[in-house]
Amino acid sequence: MDSAYASASSPTQQNNQLGDAFLEIAPISSTALPSPSWDVFINHCGIDVKYTIATTIHNTLTRAGLRVFLDRKSLQVGDVIPTKIQDAMSTASLHVAIFSSNYARSPWCLAELSFILKTGTRIIPLFFHVDPSDLRRVDQGKGIYADAFIQHENKGRYTSEKLQEWKMALQIVSFHSGCVVNNN
């Protein structure tokens, strides 16, 4: 996948190629599964990828006939956001977690990831300009994700147990087979 992404001539073409390649590695048929509310839930950090790769994956999988939850496309006026998102995570057959540079700075992203792992359903990680080792090295105090956890600890808004739960979730998913996307 890295070579297809790197050989594209424009960011739009890169995103389209990545979306098509993602469809190939995430085969799922909405007719072959029980009927959950959603086939796929996309966990992501909005400021990094909402309008790029997250939307590309959403659009590609939707064109393939899947019901894909992406907050900006799936939430409606009047929805209770935490409830709607938790329902979508609970009923999705597949979860895509897009790890990007600011992902670990978002308590929302980390809480979603922890919840997703507790559902026991399939999760495909996409490491977008992030190395999987960044997720593993949080406890060692190394890498951009470790820096994010230092900020969480300094703010004091979350218990040490909650922070440890989030670190463990990152470590677990870092060993899942997925995709690494970068500029190289």
Word description of this protein:
The protein has 184 residues and is α/β, with parallel strands linked by helices. The protein has a single domain, classed as Toll/interleukin-1 receptor homology (TIR) domain (Rossmann fold, 3-Layer(aba) Sandwich), CATH 3.40.50.10140. 54% of the residues lie in helices and 12% in strands. It is built from nine helices and five strands. The protein has helices at 2-7, 11-25, 46-63, 71-74, 81-91, 107-119, 132-136, 144-155, 160-174, and strands at 40-43, 68-69, 94-99, 122-128, 179-181. It has a five-stranded parallel beta sheet with strand order 2-1-3-4-5, with helices on both faces. Strand 1, helix 3 (46-63) and strand 2 (68-69) form a beta-alpha-beta unit. It starts with a helix and ends with a strand. Residues 1-9 and 25-36 have low confidence and may be disordered. Keywords: Hydrolase, NAD. Residues 36-174 form the TIR domain. This is ADP-ribosyl cyclase/cyclic ADP-ribose hydrolase.
Describe, in short, the structure shown.
This protein has 184 residues and is of the alpha/beta class.
Task: Let me know the number of strands.
Answer: 5
Helix/strand order, N-terminal first: HHEHEHHEHEHHHE
**CATH H-level homologous superfamily name:** Toll/interleukin-1 receptor homology (TIR) domain
Characterize the largest beta sheet: strand count, sense, and whether it forms a barrel: 5 strands, parallel
CATH architecture: 3-Layer(aba) Sandwich
Distance between the termini: 11 Å
| Tally of structural domains | 1
Structural class: alpha/beta
- The radius of gyration over CA amounts to 16 Å
By DSSP (H or I, 4+ residues per run), the number of helices equals 9
| Strand percentage | 5-15%
Order of strands across the widest beta sheet? 2-1-3-4-5
Pfam families: TIR
EC number: 3.2.2.6
Enzyme class: hydrolase
Protein name: ADP-ribosyl cyclase/cyclic ADP-ribose hydrolase
